[in-house]
Specification:
By secondary structure, the protein is mainly alpha-helical. It has a single domain (36-184), classed as Globin-like, CATH 1.10.490.10. It is built from seven helices and no strands. Helix 2 crosses helix 6. The longest helix has 24 residues, at 160-183. The protein is globular, with a radius of gyration of 16 Å. The two termini are 17 Å apart. This is superoxide dismutase. It is found in: Cytoplasm; Nucleus. Residues 33-182 form the Globin domain. GO terms for molecular function: heme binding; iron ion binding; nitrite reductase activity; oxygen binding; oxygen carrier activity; superoxide dismutase activity.
Length: 194
């Protein structure tokens, strides 16, 4: 798989995190929910990741922007940055990396509370749809980049089995975020923006 391609996400799990949303023709189907064992795997592996959340988040965003430079159009504060060292040192990029990682942390910490997870992801989706006007496909791409970075940076934790479980979670995150886009009237969930 080339550096520009992120691993494909499977269809997101049904009722994984609770709450029905309005359906959109381009929106993926929901699949089966996370089991108790899968939630435990996610929470255990996330503990290793979150110890280095800022650095991991920066690695994720840098890879995202390098491999998908069109994504930078939504970030006026580092849109023009090309130099990797400049990106790595950017306080604004670091702050956004922390926001991304903290949102994932909230989801992981609340996997047993579907309403909380749905609420958090609805806020993320609505803010990105209404305020930032981000094409929803970038969330799918970002989920793939997150999986790629985690499996490379934490090979001892992210075994093949763990990667399958995390892929399932990322599919659910994408499903919930796109549900928020649908709720606010975003006409098309998929896009050829990249």
């Amino acid at each position: 798989m080339s550096r520009r391609e992120s691993p494909p996400l499977p269809p997101p799990p049904p009722q994984l995190l609770g709450g029905q949303r309005g359906e959109c023709e381009d929106r993926p189907e929901r699949a089966e929910p996370l089991s108790d064992a899968e939630r435990e795997i996610i929470q255990d592996t996330w503990g290793h990741v979150y110890k280095n959340c800022e650095d991991v988040g920066v690695s994720v965003l840098i890879r995202f922007f390098v491999n998908f430079p069109s994504a930078k159009q939504y970030f006026s504060q580092f849109r023009e940055m090309e130099d990797l060292e400049e990106m790595e040192q950017s306080s604004q990029l670091r702050q956004h990396a922390c926001r991304v990682m903290n949102a994932i942390n909230t989801v992981v910490e609340n996997l047993n509370d579907p309403e909380k997870v749905s609420s958090v992801l609805a806020l993320v989706g609505k803010a990105h749809a209404l305020k930032h006007k981000v094409e929803p496909i970038y969330f799918k791409i970002l989920c793939g980049v997150i999986l790629e970075v985690l499996s490379e940076d934490f090979p001892e934790c992210f075994t093949a089995e763990v990667q399958v479980v995390w892929t399932k979670l990322m599919g659910a995150l994408y499903w919930h975020v796109t549900g928020a886009y649908t709720e606010v009237g975003w006409l098309q969930v998929s896009s050829s923006a990249v």
